[in-house]
Design goal:
Layout: H1 4-15, H2 32-43, H3 47-57, H4 61-66, H5 71-82, H6 85-95, H7 99-110
């Protein structure tokens, strides 16, 4: 349980409109499914990217929704990004990882 002093400190930051960033150890493993879901979220922020994803992967919105936890669907999302470098780099930047991490996650999902 957090002490009152610690809660007060955090409340002060919040009241000032400040944010805290939690940094991961560079060597900490990244869950490939979580990474793919983050990449999918980034993709869906743009209607044109979302339409291209559906068009090139053959997925439908219904199949995407139904397969959100399916490793094959998540792998298709990462493969889609890997096939178009500007999107791969954009997603990686948004997620705070190297583009290689997305490609590696696709390989892990295929295994």
């Amino acid at each position: 349980m957090l002490s009152a002093a610690r809660l007060g400190w955090m409340a002060d930051l919040y009241a000032l409109g400040k944010t805290l960033t939690i940094l991961r150890e560079p060597s900490s493993p990244i869950d490939p499914q979580a990474l793919a879901l983050g990449a999918l979220g980034w993709l869906l922020q743009s209607e044109s990217r979302a339409e291209r994803l559906l068009s090139l992967t053959g997925l439908t919105p219904e199949a995407l929704r139904a397969g959100i936890g399916d490793r094959a669907v998540l792998c298709a999302v990462l493969d889609f990004l890997a096939a178009h470098e500007p999107d791969l780099v954009g997603a990686a930047e948004a997620l705070g990882v190297a583009p290689e991490a997305l490609v590696r996650a696709a390989g892990e999902l295929q295994a």
